[in-house]
Design a protein that fits this description.
Cofactor: Zn(2+)
Radius of gyration: 17 Å
Catalytic activity: 7-carboxy-7-carbaguanine + NH4(+) + 2 ATP = 7-cyano-7-carbaguanine + 2 AMP + 2 diphosphate + 2 H(+)
CATH topology: Rossmann fold
CATH class: Alpha Beta
Order of helices and strands: EHEHHEHHEHEHEEH
Strand content: 15-25%
Structural class: alpha/beta
Pathway: Purine metabolism; 7-cyano-7-deazaguanine biosynthesis
Organism: Roseateles agri
Helix content: 40-55%
Function: Catalyzes the ATP-dependent conversion of 7-carboxy-7-deazaguanine (CDG) to 7-cyano-7-deazaguanine (preQ(0)).
Strand order of the largest sheet: 3-2-1-4-5
Largest sheet: 5 strands, parallel
Length: 241
């Protein structure tokens, strides 16, 4: 389990915030730890672009329901990375069935996505005076994406810090915990109110489904993202009983 956050009264963080469960938990984690927190999102032509609307709702509700975090929550930034969808033929950017590929990766893998996200985020962080990037990458419960692995991100942290000639820390609080533990972490950070916000207002479903309501939230219930979120929620609930 991730250790309880320790407050940092000086450093500024930029959270990669999609509006999903993981990035919302990471936003709460950063707000509990850092003096000032800004968010960044990316429009890359994703099939589930409903998440871009959800992220604004989540930010507004966090500011409203958690006043001790509201004063730390700074600006939001949205970057247009639509070029990514023009060079990536994946189930995340095109209306095709989700399936495994010959290389052993699901076709929801968008090559280079996290590498680009973090590079652009670091560029913005440098200009905004932030020295910490926070992302929801995880290699415990995940689809095998190589750009979510800890070693990938450690290497990128070195490259970004050298390239900017300024220390840039990449924090991944979910890297080594399960999805059930992610539910537990958000509860530890913001209580039942934060988990209810995650259930009601965040978006995970790859297909962009917001009409079907489950105990764990909205989604089709059958895509890999929904199945992972549902399984983690069931394990989290079972662990509390």
């Amino acid at each position: 389990m991730t250790a309880p956050p320790q407050a940092n009264t000086t450093r500024k963080a930029l959270v990669l915030f999609s509006g999903g469960q993981d990035s919302t938990t990471c936003l709460a984690w950063a707000l509990d730890r850092y003096a000032e927190v800004e968010t960044i999102g990316f429009d890359y032509g994703q099939r589930h672009r409903i998440e871009l609307e959800c992220r604004q709702t989540v930010r507004a509700k966090i500011a409203d329901q958690f006043p001790h975090w509201a004063a730390k929550l700074g600006e939001d930034h949205m970057l247009d990375l639509s070029l990514l969808s023009q060079i990536s033929q994946t189930a995340m950017t095109e209306n095709v069935a989700i399936e495994m590929q010959a290389n052993g990766l699901p076709n929801t893998f968008v090559p280079g996505r996290n590498l680009l996200f973090l590079t652009f985020a670091a560029t913005l962080a440098y200009r905004r005076g932030a020295s910490v990037l926070v992302g929801g990458m995880c290699e415990t419960d995940y689809s095998g994406y190589p750009d979510c692995r800890d070693n990938t991100l450690k290497a990128l942290q070195v490259a970004l810090s050298l390239g900017l000639d300024a220390p840039m820390t990449l924090e991944t609080p979910l890297m080594f915990i399960t999805k059930a533990e992610t539910w537990a972490l958000s509860e530890r950070l913001g209580g039942a109110a934060l988990n209810e916000l995650v259930i009601e207002d965040t978006h995970t479903c790859y297909l962009g489904e917001r009409k079907l309501r489950h105990a764990w939230g909205w989604g089709c219930g059958t895509c890999p993202a929904c199945e992972l979120r549902a399984r983690g929620y069931d394990e989290y609930v079972a662990g509390k009983s």
